[in-house]
Automatic annotation (TrEMBL):
Sorted UniProt keywords: Membrane, Mitochondrion, Transmembrane, Transmembrane helix, Transport
Recorded GO MF terms: iron ion transmembrane transporter activity
Protein name, as recorded: Similar to mitochondrial carrier protein
Family indicated by similarity: Belongs to the mitochondrial carrier (TC 2.A.29) family.
Transmembrane segments: 202-225, 245-268
Localization, UniProt: Mitochondrion membrane
PROSITE patterns: SOLCAR
Solcar repeat placement: 27-123, 146-231, 246-329
InterPro entries: MCP_dom_sf (IPR023395), MCP_transmembrane (IPR018108)
Length: 345
């Protein structure tokens, strides 16, 4: 996104819907990975404190407001950080627990996530176009680039593949975020304790649950996001471009809807991944959910809804706006290069 409001080119515009997709216009996989990695790290840096608040509210044994969570963050830092950084510095450090873990994994995770989404969306659109011209292959559903079915399938594929990165990150990051002391939240301490007490398998605890939470989230998010972008394109302009602020608004609104709808699943995932178990010990998700509802009521499944939405909205807005901006810049450079080559020839 540029300060001058430079428009962002829609990846599946009305012109693209009129003809089958062409591999000549498909972004290179290296470019997709680079753009999405940078966008993901920028977003993570901005929203890490909100994610920390979300995790602490969700694992609390009693309802906590955001203000109460912030007050606790100021008192849970170790004395040595109070002396070295001051009260405010220790407070900020407490909110950024798990940041190192997040950044190390965020780049490959977001790169995989958005690259798989874009590549799957493009491949499904090509399959749809080929099927339309073949009398022997008729798709059961519409998989064109503008179809919600395409966005739904692409979102699920993106989450399933990228969960290989997200799951270990979530396990380590959330344990750092809910630790009662900064000394217990370092990457080295967490890794050593997890390895010796629970084994390497603990890194992937909740992998299927991560897909169960963020699979529906990604499906709902991308369907809503693509619909909103198309609505903006009809409402604002007849060209193939959208202003950057409309991309920002579409990503934020889609993130809010998807985050709110999947909060109960995220509560269970967060509790499962932050529970310490002995090596070989298993924790039934159903048993944990039943105990939570029995002890704290059904409202416990919505605990952290506010912080989760407040975390995801700016995270998705920053990530997608930056990603679309980088993609638009690369597309404009490609078009300019092609034009120059055409003139030269």
């Amino acid at each position: 996104m540029s300060a001058s409001g430079e428009p962002v080119t829609l990846p599946d515009s009305s012109a693209a819907r009129m003809s089958p997709p062409s591999t000549a216009h498909e972004p290179a996989i290296t470019d997709l990975c680079s753009w999405s990695a940078v966008a993901g790290v920028l977003a993570r840096t901005a929203v890490q404190p909100l994610d920390t608040i979300r995790a602490r509210v969700m694992v609390s044994s009693k309802p906590l407001s955001i203000w109460e969570t912030l007050q606790r963050a100021g008192t849970e830092s170790c004395a040595r950080y109070h002396r070295r950084l001051g009260r405010f510095g220790a407070f900020v450090r407490s909110l950024y627990r798990g940041y190192t873990i997040s950044v190390l994994v965020q780049a490959p995770a977001v790169a995989t996530y958005l690259t798989v989404y874009e590549k799957t969306k493009f491949a499904l659109a090509e399959f749809e176009a080929a099927s339309r011209t073949s009398p022997h292959r008729r798709p059961l559903i519409d998989l064109s680039a503008s179809s919600p079915w395409n966005h739904l399938c692409s979102g699920l594929a993106a989450e399933t593949v990228s969960a290989v990165f997200w799951t270990p990150m979530e396990v380590m990051k959330q344990r750092a975020q809910v630790a009662t002391c900064d000394a217990d939240a370092t990457l080295r301490t967490l890794a050593r304790r997890l390895w010796t007490e629970e084994g390497a398998r603990a890194l992937f605890r909740g992998y299927l649950l991560t897909i169960g939470v963020f699979g529906p989230y990604a499906m709902l998010y991308f369907v809503t996001y693509e619909r909103l972008k198309r609505w903006w394109s009809r409402f604002l302009t007849k060209s193939e471009s959208l202003p950057s602020w409309s991309i920002l608004a579409s990503a934020a609104a889609s993130g809010a809807v998807a985050a709110a709808c999947t909060t109960p699943l995220d509560v269970l995932k967060t509790r499962l991944q932050t529970t310490r178990l002995a090596a070989g010990e298993r924790l039934s998700l159903w048993r944990m959910a039943s105990a939570l509802v029995r002890e704290q009521g059904y409202q416990a499944l919505l605990r952290g809804l506010g912080p989760r939405v407040l975390w995801i909205v700016p995270n998705t807005a920053i990530t997608m706006t930056a990603f679309e901006y980088f993609k638009a810049q690369a597309s404009s450079r490609t078009v300019s290069t092609a034009s120059l080559e055409g003139v030269a020839s």
